[in-house]
Amino acid sequence: MLEFEKKSPKNRWLELAPMIDVVFLLLIFFMLTSIYAKPMLPVSLPEAETATVQEEPDITIGITRSGEISLNTKSITLDKLQEELAELLSVRRDKNMRLIADKEVNFGLVITVMDIAKKSGADNIAVVTEKIQE
Hints:
It is built from three helices and seven strands; from the N terminus they run αββββαβαββ. Helix 2 runs parallel beside helix 3 (107-120). The chain has helices spanning 17-36, 78-90, 107-120; strands at residues 47-48, 60-63, 69-71, 74-76, 96-101, 124-127, 130-131. It has a domain at 47-131: Nucleotidyltransferase, domain 5, CATH 3.30.420. It is of the alpha/beta class. A five-stranded mixed β-sheet has the order 4-3-2-5-6, covered by helices on one side. A two-stranded parallel sheet has the order 1-7.
């Protein structure tokens, strides 16, 4: 009976270099994409039939259902809003901003925030809504 030699593989271990390369590439990819992702506020937007898509201004004021106010995703009190917003608007050529408010928010708070924005120097305040799906 013929006996064949059993060939043993040269390397009995897994090559780690290609796996490490792939892991580092994935890590770099997710780091770069997370930089450009804009965090969204947990709000339920009201709907409007005449809603239009506009360019996103850099300044965003958000009001959550519980009445918490944020300026560019940074939590802020109503007292400090005018001061911070005036500082942001003073260095900008365009004085545009957008307001994202949950549909359950007290309308008086929305008007107060819009009034503070106008006092701070905002020219255009875009109120963000969702377009009704037909």
